[in-house]
Write a structure and sequence with these properties.
With about 375 residues, this protein is of the alpha/beta class. It has 16 helices and 13 strands. Strands 3-2-1-4-5-6-7 form a seven-stranded parallel sheet, sandwiched between helices. The protein has a six-stranded parallel sheet with strand order 10-9-8-11-12-13, sandwiched between helices. Strand 11, helix 12 and strand 12 form a beta-alpha-beta unit. The longest helix is centred in the N-terminal third of the chain and has 15 residues, at about 15-30.
Length: about 375
């Protein structure tokens, strides 16, 4: 596939999870000698800490909202005619509309689903008319794409059975997300910006995620409150989002103001991962859980809930590579964190297993899975 050109469509170029996925995927394609790689985006400018390979051509679409993107996408496709257009996260519908508007057959469109539409519409954004419209549009538009990729098998099952996307199995694939191992390992060597990790006086539990309902941080806070009855430990939750006020209120109600820190978002959470004692992802829904892989790269043992959409289970298996506990199970989460903190034998096993497991999500491995799927289309 040396003559292939690929365009990746992303929301923006800030240092968020999707941009990091796009940069790692571009790295994998570049190493596979893809002749030309484009990155289409709506917002921001390429930041210094985003590691796209040399030669990538960045194309700002000239608009800043997804609903305005179809026409610029169509114009790009008519002019450049890449072999493939791949949309990443929340942009599948504008990508499909732009591809249809281009009315040309030289480009194949592959949409990548990174979240559960049903959960978003019925739980996290219940009553939101736009989310209901997305469900309806996905049902009628997703099948028009050349190919559909999801990060887990449960997510693909949701789209084809619950949402009602009618698409032949040969045009679908389950491909996990990927990470740039070298970049994360390098960034993890920097000094953590958090004082509890600069001069660690007590064990530190760490989580990194958006402060959103989906991540179910109240479960972690209640579990931490129970752990505090047993041990003198601290909790740091790195991230920002709409649930901040709710979580801060709960921290105060539980009497944890001195032992829980919500420092906000970080451009380099990996330096904190490298110095914490256990990483916990308590999500109710998780279509992948890239931070689990990132924590493994940093040598941090992980604990996660068996979330809706199956992301953590895809990564951790049945607790082979980190401890997987039932979704919403307060007691199991407390016990799992307790075991990882105080069993040196378990910690060593999980750290070694995690280091091995994270190699499966390298940019080279996942890019090859993508290329194999693209080739069959």
């Amino acid at each position: 596939m040396t003559e292939v050109s690929i365009a990746l469509f992303v929301w923006g170029l800030s240092s968020d999870a999707i941009t990091n996925i796009a940069s790692a995927l571009a790295q994998g394609f570049y190493k596979a000698r893809i002749s030309k790689i484009y990155v289409l985006y709506l917002n921001g400018e390429p930041e210094e800490n985003i590691s796209f390979p040399k030669g990538v051509e960045f194309v700002h679409l000239g608009v800043h909202r997804a609903r305005q993107a179809p026409l610029p996408i169509a114009n790009f496709l008519k002019t450049v005619k890449p072999t493939f257009l791949i949309s990443l996260a929340f942009l599948n519908i504008p990508a499909i509309l732009g591809w249809i508007l281009s009315a040309q057959n030289s480009t194949k469109l592959v949409i990548s689903q990174q979240n559960t539409l049903v959960y978003k519409a019925q739980v996290e954004h219940k009553g939101d008319l736009i989310m209901q419209m997305q469900l309806w549009m996905a049902r009628h538009l997703y099948s028009k794409a050349t190919g559909l990729v999801t990060t887990t098998q449960p997510l693909l099952k949701e789209l084809t059975q619950d949402v009602g996307v009618s698409i032949p199995p040969a045009r679908t694939a389950v491909i996990p997300n990927l990470v740039d191992h070298e970049r994360i390992a390098q960034q993890s060597k920097a000094e953590s910006m958090h004082p509890w990790l600069q001069h660690k006086e007590k064990p530190v539990i760490l989580s990194v995620a958006r402060l959103a309902k989906q991540k179910n941080f109240p479960l972690l806070l209640h579990a931490f409150a129970e752990l505090r009855k047993r041990h003198d430990v601290r909790l740091v939750i790195i991230g920002e989002g709409q649930e901040r006020e709710t979580l801060e209120r709960l921290v105060h109600i539980l009497g944890l103001d001195e032992e829980v820190s919500l420092p906000g978002a970080s451009e380099n959470p990996w330096s904190s991962m490298a110095r914490a004692d256990v990483f916990v992802l308590p999500s109710e829904e998780e279509a992948f859980g890239l931070v689990l892989v990132e924590a493994m790269i940093c040598g941090l043992p992980v604990v996660a809930t068996d979330a809706i959409a199956g992301g953590p289970k895809t990564i951790l298996g049945n607790s082979e590579y980190g401890l997987l506990v039932p979704n919403h199970d307060f007691g199991a989460l407390v016990d799992a964190i307790d075991k990882v903190l105080w069993s040196s034998e378990l910690r060593d096993r999980l750290i070694a297993a995690g280091k091995q497991r994270c190699q499966a999500f390298s940019s080279e491995n996942i890019a090859q899975q993508w290329l194999s799927f693209l080739k069959q289309l």
